[in-house]
UniProtKB/TrEMBL annotation:
Residues annotated as catalytic: H421, D472, E481
GO molecular function per UniProt: cellulase activity
Name recorded for this polypeptide: Endoglucanase
Biological-process GO terms, alphabetical: cellulose catabolic process
Annotated source species: Escallonia herrerae
Length: 504
């Protein structure tokens, strides 16, 4: 009898243990998966915050569901200087100017993030679409007139002479435009790319909006290609040195055509790429991808048509894309990394290259996996898994795996920058200080060592220097200023990582 009872108890204990183990395993994907490895960070939380950041950069009449509640309406008369409606859009960084060139690139990259990884975003997909639409609604206003694009609102020099909240700004809201007589192919083609890429985001959920975006993208690209010239020449005193085009407009024409081909499947754009690719610099050796230079992004994007859609005439783009990948490998003569392992391209806002590179790595890995291809770097085989590993390491550094144990995303982790170079974040909010803060009055706060009172959640800043140092000084805009085009590609990379580690 005792033996029978003992056996029964043993069976009960084993059953309880097994049930508990199964129950634990049922929740295992949220934390760890044997095929995924251990997640270094809460990528889902970082994804949520990276998208929320865009609400802090909004210009115009804020909606009732605005989550960054320390912000208020601003720039409600933008465009009136030219008798047009240019209310809305985004402030690009820590100032109160709306620059069309980086805003368009931000829109393209946010859209590409959703196109490639939106299906993995779950509850954040709606917020990502809202972030894109806030930009495209503005870009549609800016391109409403044929052969004309309004490319800037605000006088950057006068704006930078003040330190004031966007809600208080009283500096001139000058309006700059390009047209047939004052061409700007780089900003026009980037705007076409943004509209085309965004159209794909809305194709299924809002067909009317999709058609509007596609038609406008086609018209804007035609203008960019027909009236060639760089806006940095015609508008130099206004756009330089802020967003001068140093790489020319050839890269944007190729990039814009690639996005229109993807959005329309019109053979006209495929033919444009085939005929003009080389003269537009498809084989450029410059391996920097950002708001100014799109060559690398175009190579990766066009390579998909060869890898996945089997467009044989675009075979060379796989080679161009591979060359870029090889240039990134640690040990390559073209790649520079900090002692802590961060990709380092330049002193000014280096983190934008970290986020854009990370996005391209996970995206190209996706294309290669679909085609069952690898990268050959001088006889060394580089697999899609290796690309993802490199991207993850960069994102992990950004989120806190670095010598300073500092997250370079505001509001993520326990230690992050407290004094970012951002007017609205650094000055007391309207709710805390209803009275207007005059132009020069804010500089005493800008120069103070006090932490910013308003947390610009999700903002990724310029980042550490080449020796992994970061002083967290508000005056150091190279390292401490956030920008929309830093965050935009990170959204896609974070969505991929969050899904990969079972967090979405």
């Amino acid at each position: 009898m005792a033996s029978s009872v003992s056996s029964s108890l043993l069976i009960l204990v084993l059953f309880s243990f097994t049930s508990s183990l199964l129950l634990c395993n049922a929740y295992l994907p949220l934390r760890h998966h044997p095929n995924r490895g251990v997640a270094s960070h809460n990528y889902r939380d970082a994804l949520t915050k990276s998208i929320l950041f865009f609400e802090g950069q909004r210009s115009g009449k804020l909606p009732s569901n605005q989550r960054m509640t320390w912000r208020r309406d601003s720039g409600l008369s933008d465009g009136s200087a030219m008798h047009v409606d240019l209310v809305g859009g985004y402030y690009d960084a820590g100032d109160n100017v709306k620059f069309g060139f980086p805003m368009a690139f931000t829109t393209t990259m946010l859209s590409w993030s959703v196109i490639e990884f939106g299906g993995l975003m779950k509850g954040e997909l709606g917020n990502a679409r809202e972030a894109i639409r806030w930009a495209t609604d503005y870009l549609l206003k800016a391109t409403a007139q044929p052969d004309t694009i309004y490319v800037q609102v605000g006088d950057a020099n006068k704006d930078h002479a003040c330190w004031e909240r966007p809600e208080d700004m009283d500096t001139p809201r000058s309006v700059l435009k390009i047209d047939r007589n004052t061409p700007g192919s780089e900003v026009a083609a980037e705007t076409a790319a943004a509209l085309a890429a965004a159209s794909l985001v809305f194709r299924r959920i809002d067909p009317t909006y999709y058609k509007l975006l596609v038609r406008r993208a086609m018209r804007v690209f035609k203008f960019a290609d027909k009236y060639r010239g760089t806006y940095s020449n015609a508008l130099k005193s206004f756009v330089c040195p802020f967003y001068c085009s140093y790489s020319g407009y050839q890269d944007e024409l190729l990039w814009g055509a690639a996005w229109l081909h993807k959005a329309t499947k019109n053979p006209t754009y495929l033919n444009y790429i085939q005929v003009n690719g080389q003269t537009l610099g498809a084989d450029e050796s410059d391996n920097t991808f950002g708001w100014d230079n799109k060559h690398v992004g175009a190579r990766i994007l066009v390579s998909k048509a060869y890898l996945v859609q089997k467009v044989q005439s675009l075979h060379d783009y796989k080679g161009h894309a591979d060359n870029y990948i090889c240039s990134l490998l640690p040990g390559s003569s073209q790649a520079q990394y900090t002692p802590g392992g961060l990709l380092f391209k330049m002193d000014d806002t280096n983190m934008q290259y970290v986020t854009s590179t990370s996005f391209l790595l996970v995206t190209y890995a996706k294309y290669l996996t679909s085609a069952r291809k690898v990268v050959n770097c001088g006889g060394a085989i580089v697999t899609p898994k290796r690309l993802r590993t490199i991207a993850k390491k960069q994102v992990d550094y950004l989120l806190g795996d670095n010598p300073l144990k500092m997250s370079y995303m505001v509001g993520y982790g326990t230690r992050y920058p407290q004094r970012i170079h951002h007017r609205g974040s650094s000055l007391p909010s309207i709710a805390a200080h209803p009275a207007k803060i005059q132009c020069s009055s804010g500089f005493s706060i800008m120069k103070s060592p006090s932490p910013n009172p308003n947390i610009l959640v999700g903002a990724v800043i310029g980042g550490p220097d080449q020796h992994d140092r970061f002083p967290d000084q508000r005056s150091d805009y190279y390292q401490s200023e956030p920008a929309t085009y830093i965050n935009a590609p990170l959204v896609g990379a974070l969505a991929y990582l969050a899904h990969s580690f079972g967090q979405l």
